[in-house]
Fold:
Amino acid sequence: MEVEVLKRVLARVDELGGISDSAEYLQRTFLSTANREAGERVMGWMRELGMDAAHDAGGTVRGFLAGSAEGKAVLIGSHIDTVINGGKYDGALGVIAALGALEQLKVEGVELPFPVHVLGFSDEEGVRFQSTYLGSAGVIGALDAGMLAVKDEGGLTVEEVISQEGWHECAEVFSYDETNAAGYLELHIEQGRVLEEAGESVAVVSGIFAQARLRVSVEGLADHAGTTPMNLRRDALAGAAECVLAAEGFARENDGMVATVGVMKVLPGASNGIAQTCNFTLDVRCAENDLLESGLGVLKGRFAEISKSRELELKWEVVQVNGAVPCDEGMVADLVKSAEKVTGTARVLGSGAGHDGVMMSRVMPVGMIFVRCRAGLSHHPDEFAEAGDIEAGIDVMVEFLKRRVQ
Ligand SMILES: [Zn+2]
Structure:
């Protein structure tokens, strides 16, 4: 691609990364001052490219080329919000790359016979309301009364924040479904180490993993650490530890499955006491719903065996299950051909992390491109993607759009 176009993409990643609600680190949450400022900046870039730019009341920004193209639009986008102390590539790169791809096509004099809309969603991370995808939910009409009533730490509901801090003035309503959109494409950093290990720049995403979140509790008997013989103990922590290792071992045995215990609370929590209760979280993900369901069954059985052998009481609570979201077969096939043309190879990879495509897939086909990021790191200020990898990702996007020109 043109050197100048790539340079502008990289400069914009830096520029957007400098717009933050905190002086010390990067933070842009739903409809915060920095979130809206970032949206304004992106709309400015859209207008520079000759696009009509607008925003909705929920802070999602949109640009489109008001050319002669008719028919269903191809949507390209990502999110402009960040986590607390996040990195500048997660989300922002996808929006900026979309503009870079369109600029490249302009330089090459390619006219697309279909409309392209670029979207910058105001909320994907869900930091402010602990409720993800507010931006994309808004544009597909899924922002229901339940979501609007969720409160932030200050006690304000989503609805109140939209009316108080939002862009009610001159806001437009974005509304997409299969009748006006051909599909949604997103470029995102991988947030994992597969590409780095393989020494490859980009991957085509096959789908977003199914995910289950559970709360597990193991109950034993608190007792004296000095006077209770080992064979008479009902140690909740030792049992929980065996469960954690069982979950790790099971995920290792099953290719493509990941299982994580990220939080563990030990009660009563004394250095000279045997644990009475151990509460922990369990996060299990894999590409297929069936495998997740059967996997949870096996894990529950193993946890129960461990608890029984130690005379512990097990509580197993499934808090949330999100089904797998497969990417559209046609879009995957086109992206694979595009990636092969650009890089000579095309790895197809599942996504362990959620993305705006989860929401968009409810009403239209979705496809995704992953770009290698250093050490797989994301949600961290050291998050980084090489210029060459970003270039390859944008080239794949450009190639994908060209393939749709008959
Ligand atoms: Zn993201």
